[in-house]
Amino acid sequence: QMLCEPWQALILMRRDHAGLFAPGVLESLARVVRKDGEARSSSGRMILVADTGAASSSRLAEALRDRGYPVKVVSNSHTAACSILEDQLMAVVVDQELLPEDGFTILNQVTRMGRPVPVFMLASHPEPESITRAFMEGVTDFITKPFAPDVLVQKLVRAGLAPSPSRQPGE
After folding, report:
1. How many CB atoms lie within 10 A of CB 155?
2. Which helix (H) or strand (E) holds 123?
3. CA distance 143 to 131
4. 59-83 burial by CB neighbour count: b if 16+ within 10 A, else e?
C-alpha cells in the first residue's frame, strides 16, 4: 500500500534525504512529478483538520468555512503528515486518537518543521497524563470532544488567527 502519492514522496525525500542527491536532482524530479500537472503548494494558508470521525470533522470544517477559514480535512495520519509537508498551514487541529499514527506523531512533526503553526489537539476521553504530555510537547491548546465549533473559533482568534480578509463568511 502506497502511503503517499509520488509528489508527496518527493516532498518527504527533500525533507529527510536531500543530502543524498546531487545538486539539482530533486528540482528536476519536482518538474516531472506533479499531481495533475500542477504545483502542490497552496496559494493560501489553511487549517488542517485531521480526525477519523467523518461526521464530526465535516461539521467542524463546515463551521470553520462558514466563519471564513479555509479548511482541509484528512482522515488519517499519513495524509495529515503529507499535508503538513506540502500545504501552507495557519493551524492544525488533530485528534489524539488519529490512526494509524496518533495525534502526538502529528504534533511532533509540526514541531520538527520549525514553523510557528499552532496545533490544537482533540480527544474524546483524555487522560490527565495525555493532556500534560500534549502541552509538554508543544500543543497550543487541548479540546475535549464533543465541543461546539465556536469553542475552536475563539481559540483560533485568541491565537491570533482571524479568518482571511480575502474570504467572507459563507464563501
Report:
1. 18
2. strand 119-123
3. 9
4. ebbebbbebbbbbbbbbebbbbbbb
User: In angstroms, rounded to a whole number, what is the distance separating the alpha carbons of residues 135 and 25?
Assistant: 40
- pLDDT band of residue 32 (cuts 50, 70, 90) is low
**Helical axes 6-17 vs 77-86, angle rounded to 10°:** 70
* pLDDT tens track for 57-101: 999 999 999 999 999 999 999 889 888 887 889 999 999 999 999
CB 71 within 8 A of CB 46: yes
Provide the sign of the torsion angle of the four alpha carbons 26, 49, 99, 2, taken in this order.
negative
Alpha helices per DSSP H over the chain: 6-17, 25-32, 54-66, 77-86, 103-113, 128-136, 149-158
Strand 141-144, strand 119-123: pairing:
parallel
Strand-by-strand arrangement of the 141-144 sheet: 71-74, 46-50, 89-95, 119-123, 141-144
C-alpha cell at 90: 495557519
